Structure formats: C-alpha cells, structure tokens
Amino acid sequence: MSARYADGALPEPEAWALEKHVEGCARCAATVSAAVRATAPAGDVLEGVRGALLTVVAETAGASAARASGAKAPIAPRQPATPLTRALWAAGPALRGPWLVALLLVCAVATGLAYGGGFAGARPLLFALAPVLPVAGVALSYGPHADPMYEISAASPSGGLRLLLTRAAAVLGVSLPLLTAVGTLLPGTPGLPGAAAWLLPGLALTVGALALGSYVGCRIAAGIIAAGWASAVLLPVLAARAGGRGGAGVFPARALAEQLARYLSGGAAQGGWAAVAVLGAGLVLLRRNRLENL
Q1: Nearest CA among 197, 224, 198 for reference residue 211
Q2: Is the pTM above the cut of 0.90?
Q3: What span, in angstroms and rounded, lies between the C-alpha atoms of 194 and 130?
Q4: pLDDT tens track of the chain, all 294 residues?
Q5: For residues 243 and 37, what is the distance between their CA atoms, to the nearest angstrom?
Q6: Are the C-beta atoms of 211 and 287 separated by less than 8 Å?
C-alpha cells in the first residue's frame, strides 16, 4: 500500500485514510517515507517538495493580496471521489470480491436444479444455506484477516463499529432480498415454510456472529455459527437416513424441509430468533471497544 501511495496509484479514499493514519503513527509514517524515497531519487523528491512549497507560498501571498484589495482569490477545484467509489469502499471487501460471486452462483444453481433438472430438494437446500451466507459475507468484510486496509480503516474517523455495521448492513441489504426472491420463485416443498421465514434467523445469526466476533474474531465466529447451524439442520436428517427412514440414493428433501420447519415455522421459533437478534445487538454495543480493536 505504501508503494502504491508513493506511485500515486492509491484511490483517493484509501490515500486520505492513509494520510490521516500516519499523522499519529510514527512507524507507518516511516514506512511511507521509505517507500517514497525508494520510488524516486531523494533529489527529485526534495525538488518536488520545494516546488510545491513555493507554489503554496505564492498562492497564499496572492490570496492575502486579493483579500486586501477586496477581490476574491480563485480557488482550484478539487476532484472528489465518485459516489460509486465511495459506496464500494464503504461496502467492504465482500461486495467487491468472491462472496458476491458465490451468492449469485448459489441462486443460479438452485434455480437451474429446480427448473432445469427437476430437483425437488432445491428449495430446502437454498433454505439451509441462506441463513449462513450473510454470516460469511460479514466475516469477509471486516477484520485484519479479511480486509488488507483494516488498520487504516479502523484508525479513520469513520472506522470502528460504525464501519463494521455499515458493511454488515451492505451484506444484508444484498443477500436478504436476493435469496428471498429466489426462494419465492422456486417450486414449493411440502412442510417448508414461506420464502420469508428464514429472514429473521438469518439476521439473528449475523448479529450473533458479530457479538461472538468480539471475543474470538469475525472469521472464527462466522465459522462457529455456520458449523452450529449446519449441525442443527443436517445431522438429524443424516441420522434419520442412516436409520433407514430415508430412501437409499434419494435426496431426503422432505426430511430436510421438516427439519427446517422446526427452526423456521411458528411464532415460538420466530420469537426465539427475534430474542437472539436483540440480545446479540445489545452485546455488540457493550463490546464495541473490542470490535474496534480486533
């Protein structure tokens, strides 16, 4: 990153965050300084600094003279970052990387299996994967192992918990409506609830991953949450099939739908997920300092 900054190839939001960070970090300032010296001869760098300083002095003198004479000094226009650049930077690595491709691939495969292959288990499989896909997106959006700009982002004025929640909201804002729309289009399965029944569980698992991430980090927390959900959904189905209650060689779509219905259907189940989401959100607020310094 220091080399890209020295070459002038770093995007404006990232360059601004880097400049803000090095104001209070001597180690990073030394790294950036070394990168600048490595990309150009010291004489050229000093000459450039001298020229920029003289330009600033001349502009300041001109502005002072203009103010003294009552005229307005011309102000050079500044090129701001485009809205798309700002949005992509704020959304995080997940929406710029393979997670978005994986999300679209899951939706495409489920639709192709249902309508192209006549696979009856496409909808239950989608419902089994849907709650953990946002969890994976959050894990790939924040933290030192996921974001190469994590230290700079966390040190910026808009970093920390605010940036984490912004990126989590971006992941949820893309995955929830997309997966729900695809679930609505897929053929129905007896025993499986409506396409929107997984929304509250998906939100609760995502918030739970954020809360658990304050203790073990986002990546490990996402793995624990995903493994727990997969075990709760798939292990009873596999055990029933091994016990002879499922057809050999046939995907147990009905058994999977019934197992999912236990976690998704009814006021008691949805109320439990709502309670988990509220408790998780409270824990995130209590542990905000830890989340800002993963």
Answers
A1: 224
A2: no
A3: 13
A4: 666 666 666 666 676 666 766 666 767 767 766 766 666 555 465 566 666 767 777 777 766 666 666 555 455 555 555 665 566 666 667 777 788 899 999 999 999 988 988 888 889 999 999 999 999 988 888 767 766 666 666 666 666 777 778 888 889 899 999 999 999 998 878 878 888 889 999 999 999 999 998 888 888 999 999 999 999 999 888 887 776 655 444 567 888 888 999 999 888 999 999 999 999 999 998 988 887 665
A5: 70
A6: yes
Nearest of 173, 166, 132, 130 to residue 147 by alpha carbon? 166
Could you give the CA distance from residue 134 to residue 94 in angstroms, rounded to a whole number?
10
Instruction: Render the burial of 3-28: b for 16+ CB within 10 Å, e for the rest.
Output: eebbeeebeebbbebbeebbeeeeeb
Q: How far apart are CA 44 and CA 67, in angstroms?
A: 34
Greatest CA separation for the chain: 95
Query: What's the count of helices (H) and strands (E) in the chain, helices before strands?
Result: 15, 0
Whole-angstrom Cα distance, residue 89 to residue 116? 37
* Distance from C-alpha of 85 to C-alpha of 81, rounded to nearest angstrom: 6
What's the rounded Cα separation, in Å, for the pair 274 and 276?
A: 5
Residue pair 182/110 in contact (Cβ under 8 Å)? The answer is yes
Alpha-carbon span 288 to 213, nearest angstrom: 11
